[in-house]
Amino acid sequence: QSVLTQPPSASGTPGQRVTISCSGSNSNIGSNTVNWYQQLPGTAPKLLIFRNDQRPSGVPDRFSGSKSGTSASLAIRGLQSEDEADYHCSAWDDRLNGWVFGGGTKLTVL
Amino acid sequence: QAQLKESGPGLVKPSQTLSLTCIVSGGSISSGSYHWNWIRQSPGKGLEWIGEVDHSGGTNYNPSLKSRVTMSVDTSKNQFSLELSSVTAADAAVYYCARSYYSANYRSWFDPWGQGTLVTVSS
Known about the structure:
The structure holds two protein chains of two kinds. By secondary structure, chain A is mainly beta. Chain A contains no helices and nine strands. Chain A has strands at about 10, 20-25, 35-40, 45-50, 65-70, 70-75, 85-95, 100, 105-110. The radius of gyration of chain A is 13 Å and the shape is globular. The relative contact order of chain A is 0.34. The model of chain A has no long low-confidence stretch (mean pLDDT about 95).
């Protein structure tokens, strides 16, 4: 049972816009910034979004993040086949004094 | 550009201790305000943070694993290690090491990550 809640799956067709939600509580998302990781099949997770809405160098601007209260969202516009991956949200939890993750969302490009 | 790589046995017997090492290249493990983390992913499951260690050996563990986890750092070899005792089948997972930055009141994100190493628990 993950501390942060994500939908287990999401899907879209090429060119569409898809959003993935991440729900937490006051001790994690409500108090700290949210990061998103992309995990392509058979590979290690890679930083996709940091500090709620910042993109590391090299990440296309098709990817965007947002946060409101105790929830966060990852949006992907202009969906491409290479976006098919697992997406994980994460935040520091002040009550647990540690990092917590969502269960991950498997994105399928139809 | 720092790079991390995990190493260690891919097979551990139940009740024994899992031991992994993460070698850091492209930067000193002693430089900056970094935490060196272990994160695992059970087959088909989400990510689970195991714990963190800083360059001076200060540690912080996931409360759910704290009684079985020991993390250490070897600055002379630019590497850090994980020991997980009394393993069971539930500990079978891909284990990743990752770096995070911290300051007085801020925790950043995990970047970069190692490639991961699969650990199987079986007699």
